[in-house]
Amino acid sequence: MSETAVAVGHDLHEAHDHHGPTGILKYIWSTDHKIIAMQYLFTGMFMGLIGGYMAYVFRMQLAFPGINVPGFGQVSPGEYNALVTNHGSIMIFWVAMPVLIAAFGNYLIPLMIGADDMVFPRINRLSFQVFLLSAVILLLSLFVQGGGFGGAWTAYPPLSAVAEYNQTDLGSSLWLIAVALEFVAFLLGGINFITTLMNSRAPGMKAYDIPMVCWMIVIASVLFMLSVGPLIAGAAMLLLDQTLGTGFYDPARGGDPILWQHLFWFFGHPEVYVVLLPAIGITIDVIATFARKKVFGYKMMLYTAVATGVLSFFVWAHHQFIAGIDPRMANVFTVTTLLISVPIAELCFVIVATLYGGSIRLTTPMLWALAFMAEFLIGGVTGIFLGASGADIYFHDTYFVLAHFHYTFFPIAIIGTFCAFTYWFPKMFGKMMDDRLGKIHFWGTIIPFNFIFIPLFVLGMGGQHRRIYNYQHFPELATDSMYNLRQIATIALLVMLAFQVVFFFNMIKSWINGPAAGRNPWKSTTLEWTTESPPPHGNWPRDELPNVYRGPYEYGHPDREEDYWPQNEPV
Amino acid sequence: MIDIIQGSTYAASIDNLILLIGVLVGVWFVLVEGMFFYLIWKYREQPGQKTQYITGKEKHLKRWISVPHALVLVCDVFILIGAVQVWRNVKQVLPPADSTVRIIGQQWAWTFQHPGADNELDTADDIFTVDDLYIEEGKVYHYRLESRDVLHSFSVPIFRLKQDAVPGRAITGWFEATVTGDYDIQCAEICGIGHGAMAARIHIEDATQHAQWVAANSVSTTP
Questions:
Q1: Which CATH entry fits the domain spanning A2-544: 3.30.420.10, 2.60.410.10, 3.20.20.30, 1.20.210.10?
Q2: Best A381, A464, A482 residue to mutate vs chain B (most B CBs within 10 Å)
Q3: Helix, strand, coil fractions of chain A, as percent rounded to 5
C-alpha cells in the first residue's frame, strides 16, 4: 500500500515539476514541503517577536504603572487588555501551532518517513496561504477603530459578543475571523500529516519504526481535528451574535454564556496536548540522539501519548470550576484531571529513563531538550493544585494559573522550538550553528525565564488576580513587596528578550558562514540524515529513496562497532 | 514571602489542601529532578564508554517506571479526597443562613443589597451600597450573586472565596467571616476596560458595630 502511495506522490511531482514556478515565486508559490515548512517557521518566528514585544509592553506597565513605555508610549486600560489578549492568542495560535506542528511537521514527516513530499502538496500550500491571511487579519485587527479585541484569548461572552460591552466592535470580529481562519489552515495541514504518515512511508517502515516526533505530530493533528469542531460551531454562533445580533450567548433571549465556555474548553484543553505532544516528540528524539540511547519503551510512550490524548477530552471543565456550573460536576472533573497526571508523569519518567546507561553529549540542542524536561515538570506539578477543585477556588484566575501555564507553554513553544531548530538547522540549511553562541543564548534564555515566572507564582499565592492593568485600586495588592516581585519579573523579561539577539545573530551568521554540515553531523539514525543537507527537491534522488530495515533509535547496538545503526542500512 | 490572613471558616481548610498538595507534588518534584540531574551527571560522555542497549522491555528496569506510576496514582487519590472534601464544604453543601445578601456585578462596580433591620432581603428597609459590603463576623451569610451585563467574578482573597457572576443566573453560595476589619474584594474575571478598577471593600464588623451600621442606614434608606 505504501509503495502505491509513493508512486502517486512521484506522479504529482512530475506534474508540478514541469509547470513549477521559478525565481522568487519558487519560495512563495512552492508546493515543496520544505519550503512550506520554512514559510511557517519564519512566519511563526515573526509572530513570536510581536508576541514578545507585547509581553514587554504590558510587563513594563505592570512593574512601573503609568510609565511611558519606550517603543509604545503610555498604556491605556483598553490597550492593556488588547495586548494581553493578543499576546495569548498569538503565542498559541500563531507561534506554538505553526512552528511546532506546521513547520516541523511539514519539514520532518516526509523526510523522516522517506517520502518525496506530502500526499497533498497543493492543499499544503493552501494551508499556509490561509494561515498567512489569518495572521494578516489578526495584525490588522490591532489597528482598526476602537483598537484590537481585549476580552482575553478565551473570549468569554457576553463581553466578546456585544460591542457595547467590549467597545471594540470591529476588533472583536476580526480577531474571531482570524482565529477561525487559522483553524481552517490547521485542518488542511492536519489532513496532510495524517494521510502522509499513513500512506507514504518508505518500504519496510512499519508503525513502530516511525520516529516518535512524527507520531506525536500526527496524534496532535488527530486531537486537533476531533476537538476543533465544537469550537468552530461556537465561533460561528459568536460571530453571529457579534454581527447580526443573534442571542446564542445572551440569557435575556434564551441563550447561555456558559455554553461558549464548554465549547471553548472542549477544544482548549486538548489544544494544550496538541502543542505538548510534538514538543515531547522533539525532546525524546533529541535526547535519544545525544544520549546515544534507544528510547526507553517506545510502545509504552506511544500508547501513553494516545491515552493522554483520549483523556484530554474529559477534563475541560476544570477551567470552569467556579464559573457557575453545577458544583457536583466539579467532582467528576477533578477525578479526570488528576487521572491525566498519570500518563503525563509516565511520559516524564520515560524521558528520564532514556538517559540511563547513555553517553550524554551536552550539545546546544541537547541542553534545550533537557531544559524542556526540567522546566516542564514545574508546569506539570503546579497543575495539580489547579486540577484539585478545592484548591482551585483560591487559585483560579490568579497569577498562579498564569505562572503554571507559562511553565508548560514556554517549554513547549519556546524551548521546544529552539531545541528542534538547533537540532535540525544543519539539515535545513546545510550549515552547523555556532555551539558557543548557542549555549550563551541557551543560558541567557533559561535563567531569566525562571526569574520571570517564579515571582509570579508567589504573587498568585498572594491573591494577585489576572488581567489587571494597574493594581493601585487594590490596597492588598499595591504593597511594596508585590511591586518588587513585579519588577523582578519585568527586568528578567528584558534580559531574556535581549538574549534573543544572540540567537538571530547566530542563525544568520551560521547560515551565511557556518561550517558545512554534511549529511549526518549528529550521527543520528533516522532517515532525514541519509540525504543531502539541505535535501534537494523530492528529498532524495529518484533512485535513492530509502528502504527501512529497523526502528528509529538503534543506538549502541551490541552487534555493531559503530554506536548508531541508521534505519535505511541493510543488515 | 507574601502572606495573607485566613478570614473565613473555610480558609484554613483550603490552605491545608494546598499544603497537602504542595508536600506530595514537592516530594515527586524533588525525586524526579534529582534522578534526572543525577543521570545526566552519571552518564555524561566519557572516553571509551559504550552505551547500554536497553529496549525498555527488561522487567527489572521496567519497575522503575511501573512502581512510581502506581505511587503517583496513590497520591492522586489522597489529593482527590482532600479536594472533594473541601469543595463540598465550600461550594456544594450550604449551612443554614443567618443572613442573606445580594451581590450584583456590572461594568464596573459591585452593588450590595443588605437585608436591613428585619434581616430579610427584598423588603423596604434593605440597604444598598456600591463597592462596600458590610457584614458581621461569626455569622453565616448566603450570597445571591448576579450580573447585569457580562461575566464578573466575586473574589475575596482573605476568605479564599471566588465565584463567577453570570448574567441570567442567581448563584448562591456562603461564607462566614472569622476576623474583623476592611479587606479587598476583586473582580476576577475580565469584564472590559474597567476590569482593573472594579475594586470593592468588605467591611467585617463585630455584632455591636454591625447593629449600629444597620440601624443608621436601614432607616435612612426607607422611603
A1: 1.20.210.10
A2: A381
A3: 70, 0, 30
Residue A11's pLDDT is 44
As a whole number, mean pLDDT of residues A439-445 equals 97
Quote the ipTM score: 0.95
| Ordered domains of chain B (ranges, CATH) | 11-92 (no CATH), 99-221 (2.60.40.420)
Interface check B65 vs A, CB under 8 A = yes
Query: In the predicted model, is pLDDT for residue A19 greater than 60?
Result: no
How far away is chain B from the Cα of A336, in angstroms, using its nearest Cα?
10
CA distances from A172 to A94, A177, A228, A259, A414 (A): 17, 9, 20, 19, 27
Q: How many residues appear in chain B?
A: 223
Residue B54 has pLDDT above 50, yes or no: yes
Distance (Å, rounded) from C-alpha A133 to C-alpha B179?
56
Separation of alpha carbons B167 and B59, rounded Å: 58
Banded model confidence at residue B2, pLDDT cuts 50, 70, 90 = low
Q: 3-state DSSP helix/strand/coil percent for chain B, to nearest 5?
A: 40, 30, 35
Degrees (nearest 5) of the Cα angle A550, A556, A557?
A: 50
Cβ of B43 within 8 Å of Cβ of A291? The answer is: yes
How many pairs of residues across A and B have Cβ atoms under 8 Å apart? 289
> Is A192 buried (19+), middle (13-18) or exposed (0-12) by CB count in 10 A?
buried
Residues of B within 8 A of A480 (CB-CB) are none
| Residues of chain A contacting B29 with CB distance shorter than 8 Å | 377-378, 381
**Domain limits, chain A:** 2-544
Chain A positions in Cβ-Cβ contact with residue B186 (cut-off 8 Å): 463, 465, 474
Sort out which chain A residues have CB atoms less than 8 A from B28's CB and list them: 345, 381
| Cα(A556)–Cα(A545) distance, integer angstroms | 26
Stretch A218-225: mean pLDDT: 95
Closest Cβ–Cβ partner in B153, B162, B198 for A394: B162
A520, pLDDT greater than 60: yes
